[in-house]
């Protein structure tokens, strides 16, 4: 209702602008946009390396910055302290496990990286792939533009080095609940 509308006192045009920005931020978390966002971020890093500003004072660049920051925030779970990062990882693995089961039940093509997540080896491979191919490229670019983020990106690298394929029982990221459930 009106009593909970934090934008209720805004003029309608301003409220529409804010809602559009909120929508852009939310859509930036959709992984279908990941590749384009990382590419855009890489181009901005190149501009900065050439001595040009990575972001100009334009509405378009302000929106680009909003999308990049929200997307990086959405993928920041592995930048946290180990216990938090592992819990994030276990929950994502669980989400993928149940999604794979639902795809199979509805006779849809299963996403390859979501198969066999009841096996610690599959969990480790999925997590390492996520870190190397999704999180690291994004956060490496973020650190060029925002060097104060380097300690967070270092934690992502730490999570990747903690996966020992010769001794998966030592990896704290295993989702034991999925192992116990089995296929």
How many individual helices?
7
* Arithmetic mean pLDDT: 93
Poorly predicted sequence stretches spanning 5 or more consecutive residues: none
Q: Which percent band covers the strand fraction?
A: under 5%
SS-based structural class?
A: mainly alpha
State the separation between the terminal residues, measured CA to CA.
Answer: 46 Å
Radius of gyration: 20 Å
Which overall shape is indicated by the principal axes computed on the Cα atoms? globular
Largest sheet geometry: none
- SSE topology string: HHHHHHH
Count every beta strand, where a strand is a DSSP E run of 2 or more residues. 0
Helix content: 55-70%
Question: Would you mind describing this structure in some detail?
Answer:
The chain has 183 residues and is an all-alpha fold. It is 63% helix and 0% strand. It is built from seven helices and no strands. It has helices at residues 12-27, 34-49, 59-74, 82-105, 120-145, 150-161, 176-181. Helix 2 runs parallel beside helix 5 (120-145). The protein starts with 11 loop residues before the first helix and ends with a helix. The mean pLDDT is 93.
């Amino acid at each position: 209702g009106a009593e909970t509308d934090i934008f209720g006192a805004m003029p309608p045009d301003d409220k529409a602008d804010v809602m559009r920005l909120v929508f852009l931020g939310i859509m930036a978390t959709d992984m279908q946009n990941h590749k384009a966002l990382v590419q855009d971020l890489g181009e901005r890093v190149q501009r900065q390396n050439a001595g040009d500003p990575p972001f100009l004072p334009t509405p378009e660049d302000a929106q680009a910055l909003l999308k990049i920051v929200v997307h990086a925030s959405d993928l920041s779970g592995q930048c946290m302290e180990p216990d938090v990062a592992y819990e994030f990882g276990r929950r994502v693995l669980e989400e993928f496990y149940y999604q794979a089961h639902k795809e199979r039940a509805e006779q849809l093509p299963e996403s390859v990286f979501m198969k066999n997540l009841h096996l610690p080896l599959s969990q480790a491979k999925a997590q390492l792939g996520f870190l190397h191919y999704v999180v690291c490229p994004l956060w490496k670019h973020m650190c060029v533009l925002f060097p104060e983020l380097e300690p967070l990106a270092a934690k992502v690298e730490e999570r990747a080095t903690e996966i020992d394929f010769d001794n998966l029982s030592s990896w704290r990221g295993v989702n034991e609940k999925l192992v116990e459930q089995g296929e």
